[in-house]
Write a structure and sequence with these properties.
The chain has five helices and five strands. By secondary structure, the protein is α+β, with helices and mostly antiparallel strands. It has a five-stranded mixed beta sheet, sandwiched between helices. InterPro entries: GrpB/CoaE (IPR007344), NT_sf (IPR043519).
């Protein structure tokens, strides 16, 4: 099984793509919206990544999820399975190629701390960024189980970095 996209060198247009889509995404969330952030590898200058824009949407609650889902569907997003309680997931493919992943999390959700914390660590620590890129490329080259395997094998590195930095308890 392949990953959703091939890892490519950093593309400086990724932040611009996020900014172009941010107001459209925000339009789906109405009064629920607290913040929208660019996360994931495409948000880290210099880091090779799958060219899929990861977006974190922090919300007060998910009380308007069905109305939000309709707006997002009109923008080309499909709701996936919830990743955990309070963490809704959406994806957008264009011509069969994944372009965006949205993580809508209620305020205070651990996933917010983890995703923002890891992004910020990678932005500030060149050595960690290089180690993470090397791991991602190695996992891509040896992958036989698709995205689930890839994510599972990246997880120990991410958690160890977050614990070492004191972002999450050990």
């Amino acid at each position: 099984m392949a990953l959703t996209s091939k890892i490519i060198p950093y593309d400086p247009t990724w932040p611009t793509r996020f900014l172009a889509d941010k107001p459209l995404i925000a339009s789906a969330f109405g009064d629920e919206l607290i913040a929208i952030q660019h996360i994931g590898s495409t948000s880290v200058p210099g880091l090779a990544a799958k060219p899929e824009i990861d977006v974190l949407i922090e919300v007060h609650d998910h009380s308007n999820a069905s109305a939000r889902d309709e707006v997002l569907m009109g923008l080309g997003y499909v709701r996936g399975s919830d990743l955990s309680e309070g963490h809704h997931f959406y994806r957008r493919n264009v011509n069969g190629i994944r372009t965006h992943k949205l993580h809508a999390c209620v305020s205070g959700h651990l996933a917010i701390t983890q995703m923002v914390g890891f992004r910020d660590l990678l932005r500030c620590d060149a050595s960690m960024r290089q180690q993470y890129e090397a791991l991602k490329l190695q996992l891509e080259s040896s992958n036989t189980g698709g995205m689930a395997e890839y994510l599972e094998k990246k997880s120990p590195f991410i958690i160890a970095a977050l614990v070492h930095a004191g972002i999450v308890p050990g």
